[in-house]
User: Fold this.
Amino acid sequence: MSTRGLFDDMGLDGVHELGPRACVLRGFARPVAGDLLKAINEVARISAFRHLVTPGGYTMSVAMTNCGALGWTSDRRGYRYSAIDPYTGSPWPAMPDSFKRLAHDAAAAAGFEAFEPDACLINRYAPGAKLSLHQDKDERDLGAPIVSVSLGMPAVFLFGGLRRDDPTAKVPLFHGDVAVWGAEDRLRYHGVMPLKDDPHPDLGSYRINLTFRKAG
Ligand code: SIN
Ligand code: FE2
Assistant:
């Protein structure tokens, strides 16, 4: 059965298929967006947004923080997951229950049962910020999907293939959309085009993305 058939009566705005095991659940997170934004502010009060440096010495345009048992971080020595926020010397803030529930339910809606993320990377984009094409492959458990929640200003998501030079689909992502990819689509290259300034009523000139993963 196609994924779309499963969702016709779920009250979603629709499902946009990106691959056999990859889709965008339009508007899936919209009902809980207010709770998510409150929780993001609390996380950022403890572990502030910061612009990480890549191993190549480039400062990322996207500001990042994390919550959950493990957080993704980068410096001149490489990319890695860490239980400690290197900026505070303390564990990352706990993952709020509202985050866990949303990630689990979105994964299930996309056909991935029993998703229990231990890492949530929080990406904050201001106008002009972008994310170059990359694969999410620092996680130990590649059997679990990626669940990626968009809040605030719209973005153009690039979704490619398993090779960096495969063609990329350009997929607009709006406030409340949730992208999910796993199984044979788990290692597909993806990125975000430079953000346009198109202020959002709740978030002004920002876009926030939550990326849930099973990292450990
Ligand atoms: C990511 O790949 O980590 C983020 C994708 C996004 O911001 O939509
Ligand atoms: Fe990614």
Q: What stands out?
A: Confidence is low (pLDDT under 50) at residues 1-11. The first helix runs from residue 3 to 7. The chain has one domain: 3-213. Residues 134, 136, 190 surround fe (ii) ion (ligand 2) (CB under 6 Å).
